[in-house]
Each structure stands twice: as structure tokens, then as C-alpha cells.
Amino acid sequence: MTHTVHVTGYNSDGEGVARFGDGRVVFIRGAARYDVLEVVLTQEFSKIARAEIVCIIKPSPYRIESDCVAYPECGGCDYRHITYEEELDAKLQCVNDALKRIGGLSVQVSQILHTGQINGYRNKAVLHCAGSQLGFYNKKSVLLRQVKPSGQRFNAAKRRAKAGSHDIVPIEHCLLLEDDLNVALKSLIKNGIDGIETDGDIPLRCGRNGTAMPLEEELDGLIFRLEGFFQINRNAALLLFQKAREYAALSKNEIFVDLYCGVGALTLFVGRDAGFALGVEQNLGAVKVAKENAERNNLSHIEFVNADAAKWESDTSKPDCIIVDPPRKGLSQGAVSKILELSPKRLVYISCNPATLARDLKMLNGYVAADICAVDMFPRTANIECCCLLVRES
């Protein structure tokens, strides 16, 4: 049985959103806002459902033909079927929906910073190898490139790709990767993968010195050794770091603390404006690299400690400004309590998950969100980065 639906927007995973007559919300992979679609249900629950596209009755004005032969079987992209302008609108909608619905906040994001570069921006990728196959996992439940306008139908036998499977989609060239990584990928394919363990992962990474080791990256005159987590889009990372630095607004008589500091890139970028800066990180290896990065950039007033953000004890005066950049799960209750205990005048929260950002902002009692900026760190995917300035209520 099929249904006709009108798509009105997108969810945080990049799926189209529509409603049935009984009020249920239906999520549709590969749908575009204002599409009129014939769909078939794949999952049904009491209040929501998921569906696959059978045919496009009337295409959205924002729908375009994908420029990638592997889309959407490959799980790397979510939005190659819509214009980039529509993708940016979808991401703003996602952030603002979370702020209002989860956080109960009146502040809204009106602008999303981006470089305009939608391809060739990734400096890191993990390829998967199974036997003689080399590529990325098939994560999509809809084979959208078989969808045709004007009512043409999918081949039903090919429509049932399982979401989250470990089936590998062979990749010879990825539009998201920087040139150096595609050269490395081509070399792997040409020379074979006999030396690689079967069913293993193959990490690829490049920095300012190509794919050489050790890798380094440069941002605004600062040189960082790459090890562990570092932003995969160097140009968009610069936009994000500049916004964080603007929000922090540090002076030479102020103390700055960066929780979840990793290898210290943001600590150094922002902390160079402070009188004293401290990065807190629970990964000991990352702390060692962070200390090397501070020394490499001659920033002797910036130090790093190996500690949990929630359990760290300061042996200096309370910070004037704190930056947090937690993982997708957001702040722990202990980290929230630590921030409230330290009570900085300004708090800058960087997040890759609008839902946990909105939840945490609601928990930070005594602080008000003064401004929020979105940054498109991951074009053609549903992921979005946010940077929020919170100020202590007087």
C-alpha cells in the first residue's frame, strides 16, 4: 500500500518530514521540501513512521540531480539531492527547532557561516576493507539515484538497502575528500590492498604537508601537530575558531580555561589573547601533543592538564571565560556543576549536536544565551556545528 505525502521540512538526520492525515509524522530519506511523493511505509509506530520513496509525483523546486555516482548508497552524504542554499536553510531549521523545542529558548540563529566550498574539504577519512572491496559503508535505506521525476518508479527489488549495514560501497573517488586523499585512495586501488588486514579500517589523513607523517595543520599563523581529534574542514574550522575568539573577547588581564581541549588547537587560538590560559583534557596522549603545540608556537602563558572536565580542580583564580567543546553527547551533569561552581563571566559553548546543546543551555542556570552562530563544517551532510555565547546574569 502506498501513500501520497507533501514534504514540509527536514529532521536532524536530513530526512524529509511530512504528515499523514491521522497526525503521524513520517520521515523520508532522500526527500526535499515541497516534494509531493508517493511513498511506502517501512516502519510504523504510534506517533511516527518511516517511508521510502516509490515515485516523485511533483518534484521540489529545490531538488537537483546528484553529482555523485555513489549517492546515496554510500553513507557519506545526506543532501546531494537538493541545492546548497536549501541545505543551509535545512540546517538552520534544525538548530532553531532544537533551541525552541528542547531548550525552550527564544534566541534563534539567523545566519550560518560557510566557506562556499561544498566539495574537496575533508582532510580525514576512514575507508573500510572487506576482502577485495575498498570503500565506505552503505548506510542509506533509499537508493535515491534510481528515483526519476514524472512518476517513474523504483525497481522494488533494489529499493531495500538496509540502513546501518556493513555492506561496502566501492569508492574510487570521493567528492568530499581533499585532493591528496583521493590520490592516496587511487594509489590503494591501483597497488592493491594485499598488505592490509582483511575486514580492517584504513584511516587516511592529510595536513598542510600533504599525507606525510607527522602531520601538521596551520590556522591563522599557528602550527598544530595533528594527532587524535582535529576538525576535518580546515577552512570552516577557521571560521568557527574566529567566532569563538570573538565571543571570548579576552584581554591580557583575564584568565581563560578550555574544557575538552584535545590537542589544544582552540586553546591556543583563543588563549593567545589572555593573560593566562589553561586547557583541560582527560586523554593523556592529547595533553602531551597540546603541550608540544604550545611550545611550538611560543605561547608560554598557556598550560595543559590531564583531568576530567567534571573533576578538575583549579589551583589558580577563577576563570573569566570558559570554552567547552564536548562530544556529541554534550556536557555531563558533573561538567555542568563544575562550570556553575567556577561561575565565569562568559561561557562559549561549541557543539556538533543541536539537541544536546539546547538541553545543556537549559541546565546552565544563571546564564543567558546572548548570541548563537551556526557554522557549516560538513557540507552535503546533515551535520552542523554551533557556537554559542552565554553571559552570566547579574
Quick recap:
The protein has 394 residues and is of the alpha/beta class. It has helices spanning 84-101, 179-191, 234-248, 265-271, 284-296, 333-342, 354-363; strands spanning 2-6, 9-10, 16-19, 25-28, 36-44, 48-58, 112-113, 124-130, 133-137, 168-170, 201-205, 216-219, 222-225, 255-259, 276-281, 302-306, 321-324, 346-351, 367-375, 385-392. Strands 7-19-20-18-17-14-15-16 form an 8-stranded mixed sheet, sandwiched between helices.
Determine the mean pLDDT.
Answer: 88
- Share in helix: 10-25%
CATH homolog superfamily of the domain at 112-117 and 233-392: Vaccinia Virus protein VP39
Q: Tell me the overall shape.
A: globular
> Segments where pLDDT lies below 50 for 5+ residues?
140-164
- End-to-end Cα distance: 59 Å
CATH class of the domain at 112-117 and 233-392: Alpha Beta
Task: Give the topology string: H per helix, E per strand.
Answer: EEEEEEHEEEEHEEEHEHEHEEHEHEE
What portion of residues belong to β-strands? 25-35%
What is the count of DSSP helices, taking H or I runs of 4+ residues?
A: 7
Predict the CATH topology of the domain at 112-117 and 233-392.
Rossmann fold
Oligomeric grouping of the chains:
single chain
Strand order of the largest sheet: 7-19-20-18-17-14-15-16
**Rg computed from alpha carbons, rounded to a whole number of angstroms:** 23 Å
The CATH architecture of the domain at 112-117 and 233-392 would be 3-Layer(aba) Sandwich
> Total strand count, please?
20
Largest sheet data: 8 strands, mixed
Indicate the structural class: alpha/beta
